[in-house]
Amino acid sequence: MKIKSKEIVLMIIISLVMMLATTTITFADPGPITPPDIPNENKYPLSPHMPSGPTYVLTGEEHTYWTMVEGYSTKETGEKQDEIYVKFCWGSIECSTLTWTEEDWIGPFNTSERIEVSHIWSEPGNKYICAYSIYNPEQDAEYLKSSPYLEVFVTTELVADAGGPYEGKTQEAIEFVGQCSGGTPPYSYQWDLDNDGAYDDHSGRFASNIWHSPGSYVISLQVTDHIGDIASSTTEVVILKQGVTLLKIYKIFNEYPTFERLLNLFN
Question: What's the whole-model pTM score?
């Protein structure tokens, strides 16, 4: 009996399938898996707290700021690393650029220890403070951590200016303009126009008042800034009766230097 070629091919395929079904496939053991090389995080200390201290200060004043580093890391040997060094950096904006001035490393300090430093600003403006921590400044220069920065507003001493001296006449409104410098804006202005010691006669930079009798009067301005600092200024208001000027007073007093004649000008 002749076997057709198609039958031969089919028999070969069946034989191969049976061989694969009875064959055990084994894979080579890859051995232990080595993890990728990860930098030793134990060389990094914990970050310092954001520095704390007054945030509204005057130029020329000395103020204390402090930070701390809580907790600890461990060395490669498993030993606790509980001593750290810290340095403070002082920032200011110059030509629209924030620049930093670094101090030297100080320490060592124990973790959770309060670390203080004093500073004086000589120029007003927005200032910034941050702190860095490190285990060994001489060996681990690249392994340091920084704190968030603290913003400090530095200004000059608040000064009030009531303007003047002012001159006016009876029955006419005399206008006053108050000004101030230094301090921390915004400002509030209060006027004492009757010289009773109470700043309750007018609010705002601009004020006015009418006097019905000639004479010399004292008015005062009190300015309060955003953080509650207060400054005051006093000036004089000379009120003449209608038709009288200071030039006329000067001429008459020089021609007739008598107290009675001068009084007549105000009566």
Answer: 0.62
